[in-house]
Write a sequence for this structure.
């Protein structure tokens, strides 16, 4: 009985991870969804912060967004 509850809690935690994002992270996801090939610099300019700030935010979002390919020529993939 307790094992099922723990499994359900783990599944809910995983689902909630994608929902527990900041407004800035939400804007980053929106920009990436509109253009998967967008650069860190373009995201930073659109939001009004520095590129290192965007880099740190994306590092916190490893369970939500992933970089596929190189920095130049690659693209962003939003995880389901």
């Amino acid at each position: 009985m307790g094992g099922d509850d723990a499994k359900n809690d783990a599944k809910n935690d995983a689902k909630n991870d994608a929902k527990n994002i900041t407004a800035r992270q939400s804007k980053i996801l929106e920009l990436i969804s509109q253009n998967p090939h967008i650069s860190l610099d373009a995201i930073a300019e659109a939001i009004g912060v520095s590129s290192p700030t965007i880099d740190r935010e994306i590092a916190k979002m490893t369970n939500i967004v992933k970089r596929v390919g190189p920095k130049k020529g690659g693209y962003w993939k939003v995880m389901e």
